[in-house]
Each structure stands twice: as C-alpha cells, then as structure tokens.
Amino acid sequence: MLGFVLAISIETNLYSLSLGPLALPVAPLFLIGSVWLGAWVAGRWAGRHPDPSQGQGIPPGERPGDELIHAAWWGLLWARLAHVGLNADLYLAQPLAMLDVRDGGWHAWSGWAAGLAWLFWKAWRRPAWRQALGVGAVTGALLWGVATWAVSPNADEPFLPDVVVHSESDGAMQPLPTLGRGQLRVINLWASWCGPCRQEMPIFAALQGTEADVQFLFINQGESVQDVRAYLQSAKLSLQGVWLDPSSALGPAVGVAGLPATLFVNAQGQIVELHFGVLSEPALKARLRALREAP
Q: Which of 14-28, 158-172, 216-230 comes out lowest in average pLDDT?
C-alpha cells in the first residue's frame, strides 16, 4: 500500500492538483477542507463548552459543526442561483446547463451572504452555540483565505507568459503574447485525447464565427501537427488560430496541470480569468460578457 502511494506523482499548480494522470481543480478541494476543518473546530469547541439546556439528546442535524456544513451548502446554492439569474438570458436557452456546475459559474458575494445569514440565524436560535459557530466559521474562512492566497498568481505579473507556439497551418513560430495583441482573447489549452476538450470544442468553433471582437486561439498541448489535423478533420471542425505547444509548456506556465483550460485575456495582455475544466455555451458566453466589461 505504501509503495502504491509513493508511486503516485503529486504535482500542485496554481489551479489544479495532478495525481498521476488525474488532474483536479484546487478550489473545490480547498473549500471542502476549509468547511470540514471549520465544522470539526466548531464541534470540538461545543464539546468543551456544552449547552446545559440541551442535555444529551441533540439531533445529529442540530450540532454546530453540521450547521457550518449546511451554511456552506446554502452558500453554494445561492452563489449558483445568483450567477444563473444574472445571466438568465444565456441559461434559459439551455436550461440543463444550469445544473452543470463544472463551468465554475458562481456569484461569490451572494454565496458568502447566504452562508453568513444561515449562521446568524442559527446563532440567534441557539445562543449557547454562538462561540462555537463563530470560532468554526473564522477557522474555515482563515484556511480558505490562506490557501487561496498561497496559490494565487503574483498580482504584479498577470500577463501571458512568453511561451513560443507553432502555427498548425505553416509551422511559423511566435511568442504567445504577440498573437492577437491589442484584442480581447480567449485562449484554449486542449488535446485530441482529452474528452472534455472534445466536448467543448464545437462550442468554441461556433462562437468563433459570431464573436468578431474576440480573438480565439487554440493551443494544442504536446501533440504532433499530424495528430491535430487528423482530429480536426475527423471532428469536422473548421477552426482559425490553431497553434501547437509541443513541449506542453503553457499549462505549467499559467498554473494548470490538466486539460482543458481556458484563459480570458484583455486587450493589454492581462489574464482576467483562468478556468480549469469544461465550459458550457452559456458559461462561455457569460465569461465573454464579463471580459468585455472588465476594466
């Protein structure tokens, strides 16, 4: 068993955790860990400072630690609902996309407000739990904040890295920042063997033909030009701006260890957002809307 664990290659980047061939987004892992620690601390605190009025018959769903978990669920629900509501015109066209939380569509302030409202309500109903709920919530929030800060990119260098890419059409080599300079850019990191990449590629292809003010760039990771052309032909995809990154240098340079990943870049060449994972059409359109509105 120990040998198996030691044989697994673990690599942590800014946005993903690589376990051998499996790559996971780090944000949900941080959230789960923060909520679990906060709930554990709240439970331990309540155990050392019991409420005499409750006796020993407290229902399992009525413990301070459980209420922190409930607060997290309510926060996530309202964060998702707020995001969908703010982009209702996009999601109503594809209602099932509302359920696909892989697209990372959340309205953070709404989520925090809903989670805190739940905790304040529980603290008002259970005065003896106020300290436990407060200590647990602060512990979880601190862990979340420190973990997020620790893996955040340097705010002074949010620009595209100087990775040299090769044109699929003629083999010309150019540094990535020079491609589409001065325009809004959507840069997709992909590979033909990646299932989620194949799932979202037709969406990118369709929007490339309608979003004239945005430069779409498709940077293949680690495959040969023959493999790339064979995939595009078999999938009947007519894409412009296909480039190759033979050494797969771009992913580690921007902080991801898996595919797909999509960069949203403003006209100054700054990475406004990076999404690791598959994107639905409404989610992609919502991000294009935010990219256009970004300062």
A: 14-28
